[in-house]
Amino acid sequence: MKGAMNKMKAQKCSICGAESLTRKVGTESFEYKGKKKEIPNYVTYECSECGEAIVDSATLKESGKILKDFQREVDGLLTGPQIKAIRIKLGLTQEQLANIIGGGLKSVARYESGQVCQSKGMDNLLRILDAYPQTLKIIQRREQTVKLSAKVTYIEDARARKGYRFKDTIYSPDTKEATYGS
Ligand SMILES: [Zn+2]
Prior knowledge:
three-stranded antiparallel β-sheet; disordered N terminus
């Protein structure tokens, strides 16, 4: 009991600084594009001094993932568990899938955990891979060729975004920097 009491340090309100926070557990309602989502066991700390309510950090993290999936459902995008199921069905690791669809290992992990929403284009690609797994071979074959020129393409993309023209661009293989002709 003593140990438990020690853990329950009085928390200061981050708004007014008063040690008058009360832990509350309830069901919180969220709305996205007219659709409602209720999250149970939603923990907040309410300050009796200033009336501010602070969301518990674990609740914030967990509800964030739930709401990202809810948002994807409403938007007609695949949810995290659905993306994971497609990847498992294709027999791929997160890294292998990332190499195929692009975006890096962290993106795939974040799509699956619900931290990040995939784009509509990425969503379509995943659906096509799910419906026609044989298309995987086409992408994998191309991936081998694309890898070689990926660095140069990246530089070109970056320059293009900044509005550079690269008609007369010469790339130095040593510095990976582009020089520009007149
Ligand atoms: Zn307060």
